[in-house]
Amino acid sequence: MLDQEVTNIYTVGEFASYIATKVNESKGTSFDYADILPKLLEVLESDYGVDKGKVALNSRFVQDLDFD
User: Which superkingdom does the taxonomy of this entry point to (predicted)?
Assistant: First the structure.
C-alpha cells in the first residue's frame, strides 16, 4: 500500500504534506507541511547533499533535485 501512496508524490511540498498526514494519523497530532518542511530540508541537505536554500515547495525530486 505504501508504494502506491507515494507513487504520485513528485514535489518537496507534496512529500512534506504526505509526512504530516501520516504523522497526524498515527499520533493524533495536527501538523501541516510547514511544520515538517524544516526537518525535511535538513535531511535533504545532510543526507543527500541538496542545498536547502535552493529547494522550493514545488521542487520536483527527479527533475529538479536529480533524485532517481
Answer: Bacteria
Length of the chain equals: 68
Which grid cell is 26?
498515527
Locus of grid cell 524544516 = 38
Q: Is 49 left (phi over 0), alpha (psi -120 to 50) or beta?
A: left
Write out pLDDT tens, residues 2-24.
678 889 999 999 999 999 999 99
Sketch the domain layout of the chain as residue ranges: 2-54
How crowded is the C-beta side of 57, counted as CA atoms within 13 Å? 10
Three-state SS for 60? Answer: strand
Helix (H, G, I), strand (E, B) or coil at 28: coil
How far apart CA 15 and CA 13 sit, in angstroms, is 5
Distance CA 30, CA 20 (A): 8
